[in-house]
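User: Fold this, then the next.

Assistant: Folding the first:
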Amino acid sequence: MAKKVALFAVVLMALLASCSNVGGPAVNLNINLGNEPPNLDQHTTTDTISIQLLSLVVEGLVRYDDKGGYMPGMAEKWEVSPDGTVYTFTLRKGAQWSNGEPVKAEDFVYGLRRALDPVTASEYAYILYPIKNAQAVNEGTLPVDQVGVAADGNKVIYTLERPTPYILSILNFPTAMPGNQAFIEAQGAEYASEADKHLYNGPYTIKEWLHSDKIVLAKNPKYWNAKNIALDTITGYMIADSNTSITMFFNKELDLVGVPGTRLQDFTDKGYATPTYSDGAVFYLEFNTLDPVLANAKIRKAISFAVDRAGFTRNVLMDQSQPAMSIVAPYISSGAGSIFRDVVPQYFNDHDVAAAKAMLAEGMEELGLTELPSFSMISDDGDRAKSMAAAIQDMVRTALGVEFTVDPMPFKARLQKMTDKDFQIVFAGWGPDYNDPMTFLDMWTTGNGNNHTSYASPAFDDLILKATNETDLAARLEILKAAEKMLMDDMPIAPVYFRMRNWAFQENISGVVRRNVGPDPDLYWTVKK
């Protein structure tokens, strides 16, 4: 590696050991994914479960190392131009897809063009906009061959619109991953829908996929670093109920498990450590601003102000999660030599019932409503998700007399409802894709694929554009602060909490890396003795 960009991914917990299982008996790691992965097409996926799996079966030019920096992936080295706008990656020799075909520079060009092609309709295409002409291509004003990526023999060359310090995180994200054009086009709409309809160049392949039950990954013998991958298989179960997964863990049927705050004492009683880390995620209510009532910002604020976030984290989550009165999570860099939340205050008071009632009255008057509105809220159908939704429902009813009906549904169905804008309110969450406030802010621009609220503010869009183009980091920070304040003033989303997580692992497990930016858990170095 000729040059390494400044450290961005933060590793919270790494239990590291040598790969002592290599060459020994077959070793399987059992984990719980929680739900069926909704979409394993690297260029169109949006959810954390799919992204976690894709980090194990498809590899980009670089990947996160075990300390939060970057290590070579499909590229053996890279160089950066003096002005920070041209990145040249040299592919390693002998890299292969799982069908034996070589991984070529053209595969990266095709993957990027496919992700940006308006026909693909990738909700995450905007993450690639730092690359020259990417936005114009995605918006259909330039042809796909005008995007700033080129293949030159065994080199992949990216030209950026401007210096982007976190570009390696973006190139490590699934949307920027390579694609084998002949294979993808042969599969058509069925691509990535089954184990044999995907092609792999990562440390593992998908050996078996029993939908809504389990997915089995097998070590990829064609992977360039296969000799240092300790596990032979990884079995990911799809169990939404936390009590079931905990019982399996205590029965030694799972090797690691998430621990909700309500069950921490059970683990302590059995002698298990339950380390805590931040995965960087923020959870919030999304309001469909196309709804005639929720189009009113004061109604949205009334619901937000009615939520007792401190009580929620204390009595429902029962862990170290933090009340959120802003959208950018703690631990995220400001981009100007500080932590964003350390220099930017949160924006409203928690559980401000008086303000909530005032906002509700004003909003109803503006809408000409004489009776209290009622709303429906969708959520996931796991036991924890249902208990959280019920708590929000009760808080709003108690503070305002406003009724929520809660509609729990499978994770994949909830995501589809959000994509279709077929909801009034949804309880959702977002984890950072890279370590910069923009990862929490630019998704709310008009027409953004992940902006399920349909929030559209030309003034907000203008701030995001200015921040994108600003090279003075101190000035950029001020613009980002103004953008977050505007978002909280308009309240298309109501932040609820910044997630902290506890987890446990069997004593024979080591090398699991937990992160607040990047795939979590990262099992690349995991060993089971």
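Now the next one, as you asked:
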Amino acid sequence: MLTEIRVRDLAVIADVTLLLQPGLNVLTGETGAGKSLLVDALGLLLGERASSDVVRPGAQRAVVEAVFDLSGPAASSALSSLSAAAAEAGVELDDSRLIVRREVTAEGRSRVWVNGSPTTVGVLAGLSRIVVDLHGQHDAQSLLRPAGQRDMLDAFGDAEAEREAVRAAHRRESSLAERERALEVELAEARKQADYLRHVAEEIRGSAPRLGEDEELAIEARRLANVEELNRLVAQIATLVDGEEASAVDRVGQAHRAIEQLERIDPSVAAWRELLEQAAASLDEVARAVRDYEGAVEQDPERLEAVERRRDTLFRLKQKYGPTIEDVLHRGEQAAQALELVDTGDEALTRIVAERREAEQALAEAAGRLTLKRRRAALRLARGVDEHLPRLGMPGGKFTVSVTPADGIGPAGGDDVTFLVKLNVGLDARPLSDVASGGELSRLMLALKVVLARQDAVPTLVFDEVDQGVGGEVASQVGEALARVAEARQVLVITHLPQIAARARHHVVITKQPRGGVATADARPVEGEERVGEVARMLGDPDAPTARKHASELLRKAGLRLA
């Protein structure tokens, strides 16, 4: 619920902090005192357009802040929706609290924060509309949007299982349709390039390149092209390591004998002998390797020519399909797969088409079940709302829920849902969004809220002008309806009617007085005799004994009812 709203430098409001309670809250005051400005402030938090005109004269910026507490069981559904929306928007929630702030500068620029982090007006609006619904002359967000009307009808009709079945069927049908389109494109492309692909596959398969083969051939070609130089160097190494005169092996042997003599005098040099023995073993190994290599390196012009031809073949392949052998092999695999698709694609496409048609049928059946449930719920919802319209000052009113086929079946089904209303006998039914009167629209919303109270997840409802054009017994009925909705939701009402004000659990009076040469609005809660005086003022005279007696009686009756 909305626990606190603070408004600074907005029109005639200098600095007002409004603390609200669960249940029914009312704002009253003289005409022009600034009551509706608090609704305008909430509108800013719901993403409404703001201009520099809203800034109080002489101020740099107007600021609106609100705190929502969603810790109660009645707000659990809203908290779940809010958490999902916040995660999608990249906003962190503070446990079950939502703190929103919007600034509008004197130049008309707007800045927004959610739980202390800067964000956009769009994100602010998306989050705020989950927790507060504003109904007034120009504001009836959720129930005026076609998607909102459809969602409300589904909630009223307990159709979530059917909706989930439609969503799942639509996902499967869409996935198969996408696979079908992709395969058709792929198959058409493969057929168009079949001759070329066959040439590619045969050329690469016929050449049979191996990974690393080009590097191996490059090394072998260098060796075959430099046989004479290799043999010269090998002979030189052999002479130096194990030649007849002054070779490394001979010199190591001389050093070994000297160390043996030295060791007889000083045994501590024994480790030198071990190192020299290791060196002698290494030299023997080098000598054997050199002799083996010397025998293996021979002139072979034919082999050199064959290596160069193979290198030319691999070079051409890499130029056409490379730049590496790995790329060439991959290209060959692709060509082979594409050719296989040409041969088997029709069969695969036939299978997918059959699956997609089955999925279409399943989607149509799921959507049909959802449509049936919606139509049944539409009749019940219309009857429920119609029962309340005469008591809310619309004796000739008639509410209808239209469920008509949509243009195709989407994830929400195959229906367009429209709330229609006929305000008076002899008039045509019109979409709820076309109703012009702010008061009638608010009372229609109120009738819907009474019927939908159990399914509606929005924890805070705000009504402005709900009492426009009504009085007497109708006013009492409006008050009773508001109190009934407030049993399950927090309700904030701006009213001129004492019959409504007396029903509230929390009563706030808005006054306006000059301050610093500028008209300034203030808000204060009233209780006891002060509240009696305010209700008496709304009846005509705060000091008249009859008005005060009547006010006390209204409050007493409301208190007994609420008890």
